[in-house]
Design brief:
- This protein is α/β, with parallel strands linked by helices and 519 residues long.
- The protein folds into two domains: 242 residues, 2-enoyl-CoA Hydratase, Chain A, domain 1; 192 residues, Alpha-Beta Complex (2-enoyl-CoA Hydratase, Chain A, domain 1).
- Helix content is 38%, strand content 17%.
- It is built from 20 helices and 17 strands.
- Strands 10, 11, 12, 13, 14, 15, 16 and 17 form an eight-stranded mixed sheet that branches.
- β11 and β12 form a beta hairpin.
- α4 packs parallel to α5.
- The longest helix has 19 residues.
- It is elongated, with a radius of gyration of 27 Å.
- It starts with a helix and ends in an 18-residue tail after the last helix.
Length: 519
């Protein structure tokens, strides 16, 4: 065979590999409203940047008729490319090849790029579209999953790991995405569950559809498993590209700072009027966020889950930051089990990758009730407390209005190593609201007063006294727990100045094998 014939042979093999499971299966994939594994990578990565590994790998199993079903690449495309010029490692599961099922060699391909990503210090992005373990390979397939899981664990907090779910992801396959930092699901074409509808029915008798059991809506609004719900795959891939704008390549680097046309000294008079006159009135905290961040750009995570707290990424004068904010517009911004877990996870994500944390506080306390206590609100709330106290990144906290009880401590207070703590003049920092405090402090005196009118007048006087003392930030400022009381319209500038000051901050935790966060 001549050199030209050998080159032609290579070209033919490459073309065969690029067809995956063949044209008919590609057409079937498109008919479901799904892109192919290669089309997804083309949209995700910078044009012409993809370098593929292991295109010619095939599986080694000849049992159950698999000896006649060997496809180059074996159902997963792996390699590296760039996003906005920055290196990322990727794998994209190909449902057109044996349903995207995972074999021993399939796993080895993924493990290879994960190992290299750790050495290079670059993010790993996995696009999941798989029927699960390749049953014909038995324990070899299960071992393959475990090899991936171990690498997910070792890479956690070292390099960003992002999972896109663009098709089925069931059984053991769900645990790799669950071990990563961010999960994105596409509407109507993706699902995740440990056990599918058929087995669920046979074991428990429950009849439930695939979508209701593990669809994108379920996992972004009810379980909190997924962070983003995309209308389609194209939007999901754009979310990944956007997310990486706020993250460093690895835990030893800082997030990328970019140019912005938004002046750092820009003030917004709207902020001077955003807090309602009555302390029990709601308002939209995202109005505050959009006002102070660069170009009104805020990438919200977990938008549909635990809506009483808001988390996401934004930039301040080009500097990426994570934002945590109580949401008075939903459940009065109270902290409950889901909100505590959501925020704790986000705070630790930011801290792992050197992203400063900006916190906006308006919290009336923890949600009371037996359902919360039975669900472990004590331990769940402690997660958020632990996350803030453990974080060593710059932490800037702005108290907008209420900051009551234990929830005050949990939301980035000075004693949890908050670096710069500001308050608006509307801030109320106290153990509890005026009515509750008066009922406890003055209960005996109230009981001794004759007549409802007299009691009402006495309670009103004591409430006013309590409000005068605590419904302002100056008592906390007097003790140095608030560094400054700022005019709301200047909040953007004060945050930017604080973050610029804290760029060189160094804070360390005691040497330990690892902490034992309350799980």
């Amino acid at each position: 065979m001549s050199q030209q014939e050998k080159i032609q042979r290579l070209i033919e093999l490459r073309e065969q590999a690029k067809l995956g499971g063949g044209k008919k299966r590609i057409e079937a994939q498109h008919a479901k409203g799904k892109l192919t594994a290669r089309e997804r990578l083309e949209l995700l990565l910078d044009e012409g940047s993809f370098e593929e590994y292991d295109m010619f790998v095939t599986h080694r199993c000849n049992d159950f008729g698999l000896g006649n079903k060997k496809y180059p690449g074996d159902g997963v495309i792996t390699g590296h490319g760039t996003i906005d010029g920055r290196v990322v490692y990727v794998y994209s599961q190909d449902f057109t090849v044996l349903g995207g099922s995972l074999s021993e060699t399939f796993s080895k391909k993924i493990c290879k790029i994960m190992d290299q990503a750790m050495k290079v210090g670059a993010p790993v992005i996995g696009i999941n579209d798989s029927g699960g373990a390749r049953i014909q390979e038995g324990v070899l397939s299960l071992a393959g999953y475990a090899e991936i899981f171990q690498r997910n664990i070792m890479a956690s907090g070292v390099i960003p790991q992002i999972s896109a779910i663009f098709g089925p992801c069931a059984g053991g396959a769900v645990y790799s995405p669950a071990l990563t930092d961010v999960i994105i699901m596409s509407e109507k074409t993706s699902y995740m569950f440990v056990t599918g509808p058929k087995v669920t029915k046979s074991v428990t008798g429950e009849v439930v559809s695939t979508e209701d059991l593990g669809g994108a809506e379920v996992h972004t609004s009810k379980s909190g498993v997924a962070h983003f719900r995309a209308e389609d795959e194209e939007e999901g891939l754009l979310i990944i590209r956007k997310l990486l704008e706020y993250l460093p390549q690895n835990n030893l680097e800082d997030p990328p700072v970019t140019e912005t046309g938004d002046p750092s000294e820009r003030a917004d008079d709207m902020l001077n009027e955003v807090i309602p006159g009555e302390s029990n009135q709601a308002y939209e905290v995202k109005d505050v966020i959009y006002s102070v961040v660069d170009n009104k750009e805020f990438l919200e995570m977990h938008r549909h889950y635990a809506r009483n707290i808001v988390v996401g990424f934004a930039k301040f004068n080009g500097m990426p930051a994570g934002i945590v904010a109580n949401q008075p517009n939903y459940l009065a911004g109270v902290l409950d089990i889901d909100a505590s877990r959501k925020a704790a996870r986000f705070v630790r994500f930011c801290d792992a990758f050197n992203v400063p944390i900006v916190t906006f506080v308006d919290v009336p306390g923890f949600l009371p009730g037996s359902a919360q206590e039975y669900g472990g609100i004590i331990v769940q709330g402690a997660k958020l407390l632990f996350a803030y106290g453990e974080a060593t990144v710059p932490k800037v906290t702005i108290t907008l209005r209420k900051s009551y009880g234990g929830a005050h401590d949990v939301m980035g207070c000075k004693q949890l190593r908050g670096d710069i703590n500001y308050a608006w003049p509307t801030a109320e920092i106290a153990v509890m609201g005026a009515r509750g405090a008066v009922e406890i402090l003055e209960g005996r005196n109230i009981a001794q007063i004759d007549g409802d009118e007299g009691k009402g007048r006495y309670i009103s006087e004591k409430e006013n006294e309590y409000v005068e003392k605590f419904a302002n930030p100056y008592e906390a400022a007097r003790h140095g727990y608030i560094d400054d009381v700022i005019e709301p319209r200047n909040t953007r500038f004060r945050i930017i100045r604080a973050l610029q000051t804290l760029v060189t901050k160094k804070d360390v935790n005691p040497p330990k094998k690892h902490s034992n966060i309350p799980l």
